[in-house]
Amino acid sequence: MDEKMLLKLQNGSDIRGVAMEGVEGEDVTLTHDVANVIGAAFVNFLAEKIGKPANKLKIAVGHDSRLSAESLKEAAIQGAMNLGARVFDCGLSSTPAMFMSIVFEDTQMDGAIMITASHLPYNRNGLKFFTAEGGLEKADIKAILKGAAKLEPAEYDISDVETLELIDLYSEYLCEKIRVGANLEENYMQPLSGMKIVVDAGNGAGGFFADKVLKPLGADTTGSKYLDPDGRFPNHVPNPENKEAMASIKKIVNDSNADLGLIFDTDVDRMGAVLPDGKTISRNALIAMMASILAPDYPGSTIVTDSVTSDELTEFLEGSLHLKHHRFKRGYKNVINECIRLNEEGIVSPLAIETSGHGALQENYYLDDGAYLAVKLIIAAAKAKREDKTLASLIEELGYPAEAREYRLYIRGLEDYKTYGRGVLEEFKELAEARGIQVASPSYEGVRLVFPNEGWILLRLSLHDPNMPMNIEGKHAGDCDKLTNIAKELVSGFVHLDDSVMY
């Protein structure tokens, strides 16, 4: 295998590539043979990491609803079994469930592989990996790909591979969390009786939540849609950040007069929600809601978020909930690792969460798990109903910016775009300071310009692509125009930075 080609499949702490033909100009890069050697390379990586011989390892492999999932799963299993590992085929699963296969006493895997590419188009796919420490880091992925380049694809008869109904174990785990959390003595086994909760799984892997979690707990799920797995994603992209997807769950809630609507991404590591009045619980509102639920148990604690959160969220977290807001870098692994670091230093941090919907709780192994966020939301909804309150009351003091924009400024004609981008940030900061503009400090990602009466501008370097996202939020109507004009002036002199999207 060509090492350079394999390394191009790295996407942060995941592996992603084109797994199917069908999109013009996109050649297949994640083939059966590539998945085969990656599966084998993970066995070698895991054996070295935990000090076990390959033939003593137990590895779980699962997948989401993508059309290429079965083929890639079989390839990864072949590669792993060829090196002697004991492999369990978990079939259709969710990314968080695959990690929990390591945790559950009944399974106790040494490692897990999830075949998924989250919300990307149908022709894409990828692999995520877990050890007992959680998801792998960027350096680990690079090591696996380098190891894969030294291996040859190997056929292996997997007709007798062991199977594991992991999603059933995981669902019962979630059910028990809700039973304990709701603490309903008169109906412990079905604490959601009398509640109507609908799910939009977008034909991803999240349909189980309606049938295996909500229904057994007594909830009425009538009206739920797109629960059946279909890798063509014929109805909408399974992505809580997608406008069509959120419009879909809002309509479902409205049409069925539901108490709560839940929407998941393809592999169920992200979630969004809709309240009975149509209010969307996503981005800043999702962060605020989860923090409000956790605040009584973690008074004065620190909430870690990504860098693009609003000032109004900070005001809510610190002013209304009396928590601390630690605005860190984008990237779910970045916020999770920062949350872990803070707790190890003795700074209590119960939640790491991105505006994308990735949210990880300290109490849940720092696992970004959309279904677990839904569990916390459902428990809060059950308690609110019992006390004749609403979920909306938890965030009624949260404010919202009047306007928001995002521009992606492409870095043209440079192979080493990251060095150039870092230089742009340094000069952007200097230009702003020279004009007397307030620069936020500390800033863990990019340069954030603060305009106390108008809003803010954040310029940062993309994690994976040759562009520089610029986020702007305005406190009042018309403020984004004012701030955009200032931003245009500040970036106008950078030859390789394409700012045409701002005009």
From TrEMBL:
**Signal sequence coordinates:** none
Gene3D superfamilies listed in its UniProt record: Alpha-D-Glucose-1,6-Bisphosphate, subunit A, domain 3, Alpha-D-phosphohexomutase, C-terminal domain
Q: In its UniProt entry, what is this protein called? A: Phosphoglucomutase
User: Which domain of life does the UniProt lineage start with?
Assistant: Bacteria
Alphabetized GO MF terms: phosphomannomutase activity
> Which species does this protein come from?
Anaerovibrio lipolyticus
Q: What family is this?
A: Belongs to the phosphohexose mutase family.
Describe the location of the Alpha-D-phosphohexomutase alpha/beta/alpha domain by residue ranges.
11-150, 193-278, 284-397
Any Gene Ontology biological process: carbohydrate metabolic process
The keyword Transmembrane helix belongs to this UniProt entry's keyword annotation: no
Q: Which UniProt keywords apply?
A: Phosphoprotein
Q: Which InterPro entries match?
A: A-D-PHexomutase_a/b/a-I, A-D-PHexomutase_a/b/a-I/II/III, A-D-PHexomutase_a/b/a-II, A-D-PHexomutase_a/b/a-III, Alpha-D-phosphohexomutase_SF, Phosphoglucosamine_mutase
